[in-house]
């Protein structure tokens, strides 16, 4: 049994690969491409491959079934002897001609029904509702054509044979009926696969309105070909022999039932390969797509080419991934506005207003002379400078584990220790201040002031129930802004409070006391520290020829030219 299962699986896999190569050959990843990107030559080539596959499956299947049927009829009427000279047998030439006529009629009827949909596919026109219905109904129409062809073949036999005996005609009619059922089932499975390119286009961007080719219907096809038809054939042969309509078995081997068994095995393999691949292909495509989505590729889509319950799953998968992609875009935009950490906390906590007291390091950086700058220069050029300035600030703060709480005008407020806890917020803030001063000096010819403070604040969501933002409230925030102002007045790039330096570990040895002063708006003096490795690279604006002159230096001029043009 295990060997039979492996053999059946191999047949299904081989059939899937062969039909996929034949139908989709020349256009790789067809089901993932935009319809407009396919050229007329590509559409024509795909239509030709689909036509050849459908024709080969229909004509070849009917021809094979016709040969099997003819042999069955002859063996049934002569008692299973390997002799065809009995006068009671129908003429082999008449049977062969009848079957050939049926195959030709089936091909003609099938192509007449298939041609309008192929023309639409080649033209590249959009599919309306009527077109979608016509495309998904192609397999059913081919089944009707198959039954009609076999019925006409039986009529041709009746008209051609001058004196058909009742027994002979009954045997031929019964055999043709079973052959028609078997042929229709195999045609159904073959055409459904051959028309996949058409179905992909017809159902693109359109939800499946109803299930047409259900999995249950496909299982009925398998049952009909592999069980119902051969069992009915055996019943007809044995009942015919029992009532005397058919001769008894003449030899030791009943060739009629033996041929019927072989025919059933062959037909069963064919239909299992077709129906099995029809079920396996969408499942395999979905599993591969799931792996790509799991790997982070949210642009993944699957072609909707199945009109069974699997097609509903295909369409549902695409809808689900579209939702995930939109959610990722919203989350990315949200994170850009409030920061990655705050965005993650908001999504995990449901956006509830919450906060807590915590000890943080605070860094405040502000550009000197921004008011005069705004009144005397083009806003686009100013925006370019600010974007460059804030990019440097964000990169440095992020490298030290900080969080940009606000961009306000030409200033930025960074927090170290909230919302993401740090081992030493003071060290992180002081280290970021030194690195930021060095990078701003190298990258931008502007004046600025950096203030670093340390202490206890409230960190959390502040605002109304319908609109709030994450912020920090406390004296260290105000102190850092005052230190930034003092740095600009003193002509030094960075000033840190004594509390920040005292709370630090590794950074403490790299800072020196500059002075002790009462900052604006405060009553107690604050110790002012500067980093040892930062020289007084920034002087008061008046001593440098003004902020405007600084902003017109080479780095800024390059940014202005890129922004304007």
Automatic annotation (TrEMBL):
Cross-referenced PROSITE patterns: GUANYLATE_CYCLASE_2, HAMP
Membrane topology: Multi-pass membrane protein
Keyword Ligase recorded: no
Transmembrane residue ranges: 52-73, 93-114, 135-160, 166-189, 220-239, 259-280
Predominant subcellular localization, coarse grouping: membrane
InterPro entries referenced in this protein's UniProt entry, alphabetically: A/G_cyclase, Adenylyl/Guanylyl_Cyclase_3/4, HAMP_dom, Nucleotide_cyclase
HAMP domain segment(s): 277-329
MF terms in GO: adenylate cyclase activity
Residues annotated as domain Guanylate cyclase: 361-484
Biological process (GO), any one: intracellular signal transduction
Pfam family, one: HAMP
Keywords annotated in UniProt: Cell membrane, Membrane, Transmembrane, Transmembrane helix
Cellular component terms per the entry's GO annotation: plasma membrane
Subcellular location: Cell membrane
SMART domains, sorted: CYCc, HAMP
PANTHER family in UniProt: ADENYLATE CYCLASE, TERMINAL-DIFFERENTIATION SPECIFIC-RELATED, BLL5647 PROTEIN
Family: Belongs to the adenylyl cyclase class-3 family.
Protein name, per record: Adenylate/guanylate cyclase domain-containing protein
UniProt organism field: Gordonia asplenii
């Amino acid at each position: 049994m295990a060997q039979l299962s492996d053999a059946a699986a191999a047949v299904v896999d081989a059939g899937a690969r062969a039909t996929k190569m034949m139908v989709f050959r020349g256009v790789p990843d067809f089901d993932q491409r935009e319809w407009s990107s396919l050229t007329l030559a590509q559409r024509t080539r795909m239509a030709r491959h689909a036509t050849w596959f459908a024709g080969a499956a229909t004509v070849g299947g009917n021809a094979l079934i016709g040969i099997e049927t003819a042999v069955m009829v002859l063996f049934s009427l002569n008692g299973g002897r390997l002799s065809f000279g009995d006068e009671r047998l129908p003429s082999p030439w008449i049977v062969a001609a009848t079957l050939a006529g049926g195959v030709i009629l089936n091909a003609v009827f099938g192509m007449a029904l298939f041609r309008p949909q192929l023309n639409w596919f080649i033209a590249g026109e959009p599919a309306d509702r009527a077109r979608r219905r016509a495309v998904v109904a192609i397999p059913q129409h081919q089944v009707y054509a198959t039954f009609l062809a076999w019925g006409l073949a039986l009529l041709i036999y009746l008209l051609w044979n001058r004196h058909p005996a009742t027994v002979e005609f009954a045997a031929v009619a019964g055999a043709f009926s079973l052959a028609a059922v078997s042929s229709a089932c195999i045609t159904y499975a073959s055409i459904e696969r051959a028309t996949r390119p058409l179905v992909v286009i017809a159902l693109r961007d359109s939800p499946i309105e109803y299930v047409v080719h259900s999995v249950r219907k496909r299982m009925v096809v398998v049952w009909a070909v592999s069980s119902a038809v051969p069992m009915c054939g055996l019943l007809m042969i044995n009942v015919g022999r029992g009532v005397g309509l058919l001769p008894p078995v003449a030899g030791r081997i009943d060739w009629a039932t033996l041929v019927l068994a072989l025919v059933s095995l062959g037909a069963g393999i064919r239909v299992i390969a077709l129906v099995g691949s029809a079920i396996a292909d969408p499942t395999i495509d979905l599993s591969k797509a799931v792996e790509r989505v799991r790997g982070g590729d949210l642009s993944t889509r699957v072609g909707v080419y199945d009109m069974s319950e699997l097609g509903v799953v295909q369409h549902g998968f695409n809808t689900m991934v579209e939702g995930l992609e939109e959610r990722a875009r919203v989350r990315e935009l949200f994170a850009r506005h409030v920061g990655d950490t705050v965005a993650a906390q908001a999504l995990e906590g449901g956006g509830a207003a919450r906060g807590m007291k915590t000890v943080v390091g605070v860094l405040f950086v502000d550009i000197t002379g921004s008011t005069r700058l705004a009144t005397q220069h083009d806003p686009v050029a100013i925006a370019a400078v600010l974007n460059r300035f804030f990019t440097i600030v964000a990169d440095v703060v992020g490298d030290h584990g900080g969080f940009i709480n606000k961009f306000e005008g030409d200033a930025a407020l960074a927090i170290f220790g909230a919302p993401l806890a740090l081992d030493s917020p003071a060290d992180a803030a002081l280290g970021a201040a030194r690195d930021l001063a060095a990078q701003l000096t190298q990258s931008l010819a502007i004046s600025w002031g950096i203030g670093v403070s340390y202490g206890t604040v409230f960190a959390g969501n502040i605002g109304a129930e319908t609109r709030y933002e994450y912020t920090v409230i406390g004296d260290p925030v105000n102190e850092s802004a005052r230190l930034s102002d003092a740095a600009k007045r003193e002509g030094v790039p960075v000033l840190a409070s004594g509390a920040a330096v005292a709370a630090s570990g590794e950074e403490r040895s790299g800072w020196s006391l500059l002075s002790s002063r009462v900052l604006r708006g405060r009553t107690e003096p604050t110790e002012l520290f500067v980093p040892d490795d930062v020289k007084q690279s920034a002087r008061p604006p008046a001593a440098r020829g003004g902020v405007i002159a600084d902003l017109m230096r080479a780095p800024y001029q390059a940014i202005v030219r890129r922004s304007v043009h």
